[in-house]
Amino acid sequence: MPPSTPKSSGKKADSEDYSPKKSQEKKKAVKKDEKPAGRDIRGFGSQKPTGSSSTGNGTGKKPITIDDSDEEEEIVEQKPTPKPTTSKHFAASSSSSKKPIVLDSDSDNTPAPAPTRSTASAKAKPPTPKSKPASTASSKRKVIKDSSDEEELEDIKPAKKRQSLAGGLSRATGKKSAYVEESDSSEEEVKPKPKIRAKKEKSVTPMDVDESESSDGDDFIDDDEDDLPKKSKSKAKPKAPPAKKPTPAKKPAPAAKAAKKELDEDEEKKEEKKPANPNWRAAAAARAAGPKNPGSKEIPEGAPDCLAGLTFVFTGELDSLGRDEAMELVKRYSGKVTGAPSGKTSFVIVGDNAGASKLKTIHEKKIPTMTEEEFFEFIRSRKGGQLDEKAMKAKQAEEKKIKQQAEEMEKREKEEEKERKRKEKALQGTGIAAKKVAPASSQLWTTKYAPQNLKEVCGNKAPVERLGTWLQDWQKNYGYGFKRPGKDGMGIYRAVLISGPPGIGKTTSAHLMAKQAGYNPIELNASDARSKKLVENATNIDNTSLDGFFQGTGVQSTSVVDVRVDSRTCLIMDEVDGMSAGDRGGVGALNVLIKKTKIPMILICNDRTLQKMKPLQSTTFNMTFRRPTPPEIRSRIMSILFKEKLKIPPNVVDELVKGVNSDIRQVLNMLSTFKLSKDQMDFDEGKQLVKVNEKNTILTPFTIIDKLTGPYAFSKTSRETLNDRMEYYFHDFSFVPLFMQEHYLKTQPALTNNLNGPEQNLKHLELVSKAADSISDGDLVDRMIHGSEQHWSLLPFHAVQSTVKPASLIYGPGRSTGASGPGAWGGPSFPQWLGQNSKQGKLQRQLTDIQIRMRLKVSGGRSEIREQYMPMLASKIVLPLVQRGTDAVEETIEYMDEYYLSKDDWDAFVELGVDTMSENIISKKIPTATKSAFTRQYNKADHPIAFHKGDMFAASKKKIADMGPAPDNEDVFEEDEPVPDEPSDKGEDDDEEVNDVTKDKLIKAVKPKGATAKGKAKAKK
Amino acid sequence: MSLWVDKYRPRSLDELHYHPELSSRLRSLAASGDFPHILFYGPSGAGKKTRIMCTLRELYGPGVEKLRIDQRVFVTPSNRKLDVNVVQSNYHIELTPSDVGMYDRVVIQDILKEIAQTQQVDLNAKQRFKVVIINEADALSRDAQAALRRTMEKYMNNMRLILCANSTSKIIAPIRSRCLLVRVAAPTDDEMSKVLHHVAKKERFALPSPAAQSILSTSQGNLRKALLVFEAMKMQRPDLNGDIEVAKPDWETYCSKVADAIIQEQSAQRLLDVRGKIYELLSHCIPPTVVLKTIADRIVDKVDDALKPQIIHWAAHYELRMRMGSKKIFHLEAFIAKVMTVYKQFNMIGYTEDYE
Question: What is the CATH number of the domain that holds B282?
Answer without folding.
Answer: 1.20.272.10
